[in-house]
Amino acid sequence: MTNISNIKKKTYLIKQMKTLAGGCKFDEISANYAGRNGPEVSVSSVETNIKENESLRINGTVISNPPTNDIVWYQSNGNIVPNQFVVNSGANRRDLVINDINRNKSDNYTCTARLDLHPTVGDILQQTHSQSSTINVQYFDDIVMTTNKTKLKENDAVFIRCTVDSNPPASIKLFKDGDVELTTTNSNIYLISSTSCLDTGNYSCLATNPVYENQKTKSSELLVQYINSLHAEHTRMYLANCSIKEPLKKICI
Fold it and tell me: Which stretches make up the Ig-like domain (predicted)?
């Protein structure tokens, strides 16, 4: 059987050519599907943004006659979604359900339905239809703050790195005693190639995610030791420039 263009029609006309002595003629033969049609898949959401640890349900509904039970959810790698995440909600319905969702479930999922149509004439016509749904899991982890050292001598090099695993990417700011030093995205590195007492202080990171109301913070103290061999006058000027009013032992270890 050939030239069947619309599976939703009840009756299809098939032209058969018969060779006669005086030439050719076409006879029309009716192949009746008795109102059978489909399948046509629709999902309740083609794109979903959801926060980690929330619950998700996406309906996969199929229109077909007769109803079909051959409905399968697939992951983007072609693997079938495990049964624990698929709920049979009756004929022509399979729902993707993920409770306490985690970031590893971010993916493109496809609901596919199959239906065999049996005409009164000709071969079985296998029909398939699919629709996809993209799931984007959002998350916002705590800040990880690292430094190569927290106690330094003058002229030492030091770095402070602030990172946060976040989707969408977080905006990170680094502060020293309340003053902004650097702003970047998802990774913030502040480097001091040659330290002085002016670099002593409290360094803090502040991370902001556009879909989360709360902010994340973390801080670390840096202490820069002065060099004992400084000339007395140099030392006096050094301490004055650094605005250190406490006894010298406060910054000397």
Answer: 39-136, 141-225
